[in-house]
Design goal:
This protein is of the alpha/beta class. The protein has two domains: 161 residues, 3-Layer(aba) Sandwich (Rossmann fold), CATH 3.40.50; 101 residues, Orthogonal Bundle (N-(1-d-carboxylethyl)-l-norvaline Dehydrogenase, domain 2), CATH 1.10.1040. It has 14 helices and nine strands. Strands 3-2-1-4-5-6 form a six-stranded parallel β-sheet, sandwiched between helices. Helix 1 links the parallel strand 1 and strand 2. Helix 9 crosses helix 13 and helix 9 crosses helix 14. The chain is globular and about 65 Å long. The chain starts with a strand and ends in a 6-residue tail after the last helix. The model has no long low-confidence stretch (mean pLDDT 96).
Length: 275
């Protein structure tokens, strides 16, 4: 079977990696913290000493690290994944990063005859465990096709959007709109309070009505606790900034309504207590 390597065993990546090994793919792991790999002691996964060793043991390497700098470090450092990986291998970048980062990495990988697919995900760790993550893939058709059996262990659907970088564009648009929706949901439930309405009942109406959104559903499911969203604030801010940078470079029109709503969300989540 295809040998898979996985780096980035956080709340999103760990369930993805576990699904890969549960489906019988030979899986190699590497992490900066031993505790992250110790959590897989009950599986058949093996642990590499360095990213290069992981690359040498893998046909496809999946990255689910946090930021652009992490992607470049794990792949390009002296003992990075690309150093050990054989020609014909594929790197799948599940992290949400700038499309240009994917292209820079792909240029370096091409020197070693290694392909890169950008494959950011949406849905959360719980969705990965249930095999219903969304994967937004960019890259050559043949490379995405080779990755599909691996992606299929944790995702449905897997959407191929076009050339390298297309997956990141889709994910950034998705996260930008989600951020705007969070602010709308917070304001909606504040309005419900002011009108003397029960938030939970309003959330039920929204869940079945045309005014609903995924953000409102998530907020209601948490019992209207914004701690999780506040913890995600740095990531939301990162993704909004990335989208605005990409849109500006492309000469896209500035969408004032969405931009203002996203800024409102970031400002609201940054204040305490929540409204």
């Amino acid at each position: 079977m295809t040998r898979v390597g996985f780096v980035g065993l956080g709340s999103q990546g760990a369930p993805m990696a576990r699904r890969i090994t549960e489906e019988g793919f030979p899986l190699t792991l590497w992490a900066r913290r031993r505790a992250a790999t110790d959590a897989f002691a009950d599986t058949a996964a093996t642990v590499a000493a360095t990213p290069a060793d992981l690359g040498a043991a893998s046909d496809i390497v999946c990255l689910c690290v946090v930021a652009d700098a992490d992607v470049e470090d794990v792949l390009l450092r002296a003992d990075g994944v690309l150093t050990g990986m054989s020609p014909g291998g594929i790197v799948a970048i599940h992290s949400t990063v700038h499309p240009d980062t994917c292209r820079r990495v792909a240029d370096e990988a091409a020197k070693r005859e290694i392909s890169v697919v950008d494959a950011p995900v949406s849905g959360g760790g719980g969705a990965a465990a249930q095999r219903r993550l969304l994967v937004m893939a960019g890259g050559r058709e043949a490379d995405v096709t080779r990755c599909r059996p691996v992606f299929g262990t944790f995702a449905d659907p897997v959407v191929h959007l076009g050339p390298l970088g297309s997956g990141q564009l889709a994910k950034l648009v998705n996260n930008f709109v989600f951020t705007a929706h969070v602010g709308l949901a917070l304001d909606t439930f504040t309005l419900a309070d002011a009108l003397g309405m029960d938030r939970a009942v309003v959330a039920q109406v929204l869940a079945h009505g045309t005014g609903g959104s995924r953000a409102a559903t998530i907020l209601a499911a948490s019992g209207f606790n914004t701690d999780g969203l506040r913890q995600a604030l740095p990531l939301l801010r990162k993704d909004v900034d990335l989208l605005l940078d990409v849109a500006g470079a492309a000469g896209a029109p500035r969408l004032r309504t969405l931009t203002d709503l996203a800024a409102h969300t970031l400002s609201t989540l940054g204040r305490r207590p929540a409204p």
